[in-house]
Each structure stands twice: as C-alpha cells, then as structure tokens.
Specification:
Layout: H1 2-14, H2 16-26, H3 37-48, H4 53-60, H5 64-86, H6 92-106, E1 111-121, E2 140-147, E3 153-161, H7 166-172, H8 174-181, E4 189-190, E5 197-198, E6 201-203, E7 214-215, H9 220-225, H10 227-253, H11 265-288, E8 308-310, H12 320-333, H13 343-350
Parallel strand pairs: 1-6, 6-7
Antiparallel strand pairs: 1-2, 1-8, 2-3, 4-5
Helix pairs in contact: 2-5, 3-5, 5-11, 10-12, 10-13
Length: 353
C-alpha cells in the first residue's frame, strides 16, 4: 500500500501519468476507448505490482480479454511518453555530473555509468522455439541497463532473447555504436588530485569487452598474484554495486518481477520500460527528500533470484588501449592521491575479488 501511495504522490507532483492517459483518450483509435483514465491507471498499477489478471477481473468484474487490452495499451503509451521525460539521453555536461557523483559516492573517477543485465522470467512465447530459452533453463527477455551513481537508469535495452549474453546484447544496442566512436563521452579529464588525464568510462563485469571506454575487473588469477590489481577490482566492484542496487529497488517496488510475467513478450517490453521510467521518477522524489528515506534499498528483503537472474559472463576480446588505461586506474587507486582509507582493510578481509 505504501508503494502505491508513493506512485500517487509522484503522479500528483509531476502530472506525467495523468497527461499520458488523457492524451490516449484524445487520440482514440478502434481500441483506444479501453484506455479510460480511471480503469487504465488502476490496471496498470495493479499489473505492475504483481496482481494477476484473474484477481483484477474479480476486482472490477470485467473480462480478462478486456483487461489484457487495457494493460497493453496503457503500458504502451506510458513507455512511449515517459521515456522522453524520464529516460532522455544525457548531455556531455550531464555525463560530467554523473562522473562527479561516482567519485563522491563510490570513489571511482571519470565513470559515467555502470552497466549490467538481468533475465526477466516470462511465460513461454508461442512458436518461439529456443529463442527466449536461457542458460538457467527458463524463458526470459533481457533487461540491459546503464545506471548512474544515484541508482537511476541512464539507458535501458529491453527485449533481447533470453539465450543471449551481456556482451552480445550491448554490441547490437543503439548506444554501443556511439560509445565505440567516442562521440558519446566528454573529452578526457584529469583524475582527482592528479595531473593524469584519462577518458571517461563505463564499468562492467567480465562479460564486457575491455576498451578505451569500458573498464572491467582483472581476472581472479591475475588479482591473486598482484595486490594492486585486487585493489582495483575492489574499487570497481564497489562502484558497480549501483547496478545491483538499481535492479533490487526495481523489484522491491514493482512486485511483478518476483513471478513469471504472464503477458506477451511485446507487452512485457512495455511493462519493463514503464517500470524503469517510474523507478527514475521515484528516485527523483527520494533524492529531493533525503530526510525521508522512503525509497532506499532494503538489504534485508530477499531478491527475486529465480525471476531476475544475471546473464552469462561471456566477454569479447580486449584491446591494448583498454589494458593500458586499466593499469592507469590501478596505479591511481594505489597512490596517495587516489586511495581511500578503508580499501586495504576491505581487500584483506575479502581476499582476491
């Protein structure tokens, strides 16, 4: 009930959802009458919160086919309209602010986003063969996301087949080409308290290709033999925690991610995108009211481990420039300018990362 009230509060503050539904009413097509504001918004929220369509049928006494059409239309319009408002691409100045926050909050400089992906469990789509069947032996679509230091989504790619891995999905998504050319990133900047200039980067796990704008950890074999590499892995994994926190927050609020989603694959895409947009809206409200912690990550609540699972760790080839830049970050983290007081204690406590 609290989460539903938070959405209503955010709706009153931003007037976004109301605008979307009213716009749907004004542009009626053959089926648009289904998206009436009162019923459409109720079914949207109930569906995202994991209430089954059968329960919704009992709630208002209308047919499941009618409910399905309402859910699909409202989710479609929400995802289309909210994306431009709550998931708009950041400017270069915006990326610099993200990098500043990563340094202040997570002690990783020149980082403009952490990247990771999750399998979202769905019911088996008709006539899809093994396309959606993943390595965990269930059907899924993939949510690939880049998040900022405040656990907000910067970019999401939704709907890739469950059989694919992080690196393959990233290489074919829209942002990949821009990041490969370097046009997306600001010009290289000096590291804090240092005269060394390094490019801005994303951080990810072993699934991603190490290059000029993508940092990933050293292998466990390397880090066991070299203490400085272990320190680098600790600092990277600490900053990358933002992705797990973001997915955790998403599932804790939108309870539909705790169960297999009983919708068509296309509708699931709309649902996940809408949830990501509303997640950003709620994060904004949390960050504006930091004295009232109503949207923080609850580490004591179990995660939907069987319905939101990590992707396979199958990375691409690295390049020489990526190796050299990673070594520069490693040196910085082990220098007097870049080290943090507790890193040695954490590394010794956790061993090789």
């Amino acid at each position: 009930m609290l989460n539903l009230l938070l959405l209503q509060e955010a709706d009153e503050e931003h007037a976004i959802i109301k605008h979307v539904i009213e716009n749907a009413e004004k542009n009626k097509t053959h089926d648009m009458f289904l998206a009436r504001k009162s019923e459409g918004l109720v079914f949207l929220l109930r569906n995202i919160y994991g209430v089954t369509k059968k329960n919704s049928e009992n709630f208002l006494g209308i047919s499941q086919s009618y409910i399905t059409r309402i859910v699909r239309l409202v989710l479609k319009y929400l995802s289309i309209r909210l994306t431009s408002i709550l998931l708009s691409p950041p400017t270069k100045d915006g990326l610099k602010i993200i990098a500043e926050n990563f340094w202040k909050r997570w002690n990783f400089p020149n980082c403009v986003g952490a990247i990771d992906g999750k399998h979202i469990r769905i019911f088996a789509p008709g006539k899809s063969g093994s396309l959606f069947f993943n390595y965990k032996d269930f059907f899924s679509i993939v949510l690939l996301a880049i998040v900022d230091a405040n656990c907000k989504f910067i970019f999401v790619d939704i709907g890739s087949y469950g059989k694919e891995g992080d690196s393959g999905i990233f290489n074919k998504c829209g942002i990949s080409e821009v990041t490969r050319t370097g046009e997306y990133f600001p010009l290289p900047e000096k590291l804090p308290n240092s005269n060394i200039k390094l490019p801005y980067v994303h951080i990810g796990d072993e699934a991603f290709r190490l290059d000029r704008h993508m940092m990933r950890p050293y292998s466990k074999t390397e880090s066991r033999k070299n203490y400085q590499k272990t320190v680098f892995n600790y600092r990277l994994s600490r900053a990358k925690r933002t992705t797990e926190n973001s997915f955790g927050l998403l599932s804790q609020v939108f309870r539909v991610f705790y169960t297999p989603i009983p919708l068509k694959a296309e509708t699931v895409d709309y649902l996940v995108l809408s949830a990501c947009c509303l997640h950003n809206l709620l994060r904004d409200r949390y960050l504006e009211n930091t004295s009232y912690h109503y949207y923080n990550f609850d580490h004591n609540e179990p995660q939907p481990s069987t319905n939101m699972t990590s992707l396979t760790k199958t990375g691409g080839f690295a390049n020489i420039e990526g190796f050299c830049l990673r070594d520069e970050f490693k040196k910085f983290f082990n220098s007097s300018q870049g080290e943090i007081p507790w890193q040695h204690h954490q590394v010794q406590q956790n061993g090789s990362l």
